UniProtKB/TrEMBL annotation, chains A, B:
Organism from which the protein derives: Thiohalomonas denitrificans
GO cellular component labels: cytoplasm
Enzyme Commission number(s) of this protein: 2.3.1.274
Name of the featured protein: Phosphate acyltransferase
InterPro entries on file: FA_synthesis, Phospholipid_synth_PlsX-like
Upper taxonomic lineage: Bacteria, Pseudomonadati, Pseudomonadota, Gammaproteobacteria, Thiohalomonadales
Amino acid sequence: MPDDMMTIALDAMGGDHGVSVVVPAALQALREMSALRLILVGDQQVMADELKRHGATPDDRLILHHASQVVEMDDLPSQALRGKKDSSMRVAINQVKEGNAQACISAGNTGALMATARFVLKTLPGIDRPAIITALPTIRGHAHMLDLGANVDSSSEHLYQFAIMGSVLTSLVDGVDNPSVGLLNVGEEEIKGNEQVKGAAKLLSRSDINYKGFVEGDDIYKGTVDVVVCDGFIGNVSLKTSEGVAKMISHYMKQAFNRNLLTRLAGLVVLPVLKAFRAKIDPRAYNGASLVGLRGIVIKSHGGADVFAFSQAIREAVLEVNKNVPEKITQRLGELLEERRAV
Amino acid sequence: MPDDMMTIALDAMGGDHGVSVVVPAALQALREMSALRLILVGDQQVMADELKRHGATPDDRLILHHASQVVEMDDLPSQALRGKKDSSMRVAINQVKEGNAQACISAGNTGALMATARFVLKTLPGIDRPAIITALPTIRGHAHMLDLGANVDSSSEHLYQFAIMGSVLTSLVDGVDNPSVGLLNVGEEEIKGNEQVKGAAKLLSRSDINYKGFVEGDDIYKGTVDVVVCDGFIGNVSLKTSEGVAKMISHYMKQAFNRNLLTRLAGLVVLPVLKAFRAKIDPRAYNGASLVGLRGIVIKSHGGADVFAFSQAIREAVLEVNKNVPEKITQRLGELLEERRAV
């Protein structure tokens, strides 16, 4: 086996579709990337059956690793942590801990994934809390946003750490030098917002992070900054609200086109246009949120991800392994600490 | 003058367009509602000139009231409060305080409007903080949401008070008996969220408010509940995020239809369909956020409101005066207090 092979562990049982999505996405990724090796973690029989369905068998690039339990979508993080030590999710994370894989991916229960990953892998030195970060489409291309729900009641220091992690990850995966960072707030004026946000603004202003000040909710999709930083409660509500608005718009658009035969015909005429439009904001293309701040790379795929979307999550994992994201975050934290000491 | 006349004071200088929107909207409202009297507050000359432009003159249903100052969009609330005691905004609110008007409307600076209204009118007994509430389109019709930015760091008790105010207002303006109320949270499970939300959930569960539990960001536009309750920081971010998503979608849709001659022709074919669709989620139809919890009715129009949108804000004010919203909130608070004592 050549040295430059990369290994990624996949929780084969997680998400709404389990093996029926993870296995074909894995096979596709292996075809596309010759230096990739995948460890599928889950029920041995279920995985083998699904592989057979696709005319495939395990080999030295596609390893099956049995796990006897599955974390359900409604399991509490504490239940998963204490009661499901042999879950496909936990065993996939263990692969990273034990050095058998450089990253792992799960489409399972977010709370359980975060709790388990944090327990097994621990946070990076200097990071109090891991955060969830993802790319989002904007009018100008895309932006990264964090935290998306790992933490509520984030302090100024936490927001500052999120900003550093977001800046490093964005710089690496997008190849942007010192990406611009904004703090999500209720207004752009310095006096607005809560104490946590105001304190974080002070910390960021003093650092050499490319801090652009406060941004508002509509700035996320305008692409005003490369990295949007917020508390996890706010980030989660904001992201879910976005999904809600997009679904409502799509609902009313379908309704308008389905009104009568004439409007349905009109819909057929513009189908390619609507498809081109949808591709621009296709959430599947942005699938793969990263749990940053851990001593290892953990990617969360959307629970409802299809094969295309799950493949995107694999690509995200490959990119982060190649760019060595956790080590670069530690390095940057060290620099900023030096800088703070020097002030 | 008959006894059943209703008087509303309008800040004629507020918002992006000032008199050029407020005056024609006022004239339209007076044509539509014969029992309505309006007091236009602002620069006497500017208002008179604008009236002349529309071939109108002041009369006993359209009264001009001079105010020498204007609150600018970037004035701090404290500046407006201390330095602009003769602003059109302040004088319009004074009309409510002095009993000359039953409600007032301004399209000006939200922070200044809230601070001034609170200072001049005071909060209702039992209400610690006023909140901003508006109707939003949903897949099932519409819902009300509060707080949209008046307060950051709301306590459990504040959220509980918002829920009561939202429930009363929605019940009155929508004619719904005991509307369903949801608390905006990061997940539906009881253990999720921050302490404020968990505490508010307890208070609401014990009350006879029709409390449905936690809702998530996407529930707002699904119309899961009639009233969505949240802290103002979260509500503001959520609302602005929604605007951002809608604008991005519209941007990419225009781009798709403008790609070439063929797609432009296709766009013309479906123009009536797209118009019908847009009417369903037209934010102008939902213009007019209420500052609830004050001893008087104050309506905030969107700063960029056009004549159609500003007229909606006038209709909202008329409805709230007819339904006697502030008094009904006080009454409901009294009932709930009785109920708490009885437990």
